Fold alpha-amylase.
Amino acid sequence: MATAFMLAHPYGMPRIMSSYEYNRANNYEGPPHNSDMTTASVQISGMICINGWSCEHRWRQIYNMVGFRNMVSGTALENWWSGADYQIAFSRGDKGFIALNLEGFDINQNLQTGLPAGKYCDVISGDIENDKCTGKTVEVHNNGTAHIQVCSTCDDPVLAIHVGTKIGLPPRRFETQHQV
């Protein structure tokens, strides 16, 4: 959730770090290594890393939030909403919207997204494949509002949409503008 917020907020220059797995009983051990004790090369299988490497930057949620950040680059933080102590939402101009919920109850609100009307794919819960969303969708009305639901007990209590995930449009690719 913190990484999603960092990538959605316009402040600073974020860095995404990836890491390796280790046995908690041996918390002094280093990264995966070769027989000569040199660090082993990262091994990748599709979008995941294997053989002891974690590669958090390849997790769908983080990878897609880097795309979110690139898509909203240069836009202002707008439409700030805070529900309870640990619930917030905001838009990045007319390009993106995010809602985060660390409260003990769900967000279930009509909120101003700042986005053009249409159906959007939530980049936290899914991807667009064959013009369909594999996760949650959000319908933005003509006035820019949408009914936003963010579960408090879900694995990822975050929802993020942007103009590149509008369903029914040709896919938009992200230019690598930022080093993240």
Residues 3 and 55 are 14 Å apart (CA to CA). DSSP finds two helices and twelve strands in the chain. The longest strand covers residues 77-82.
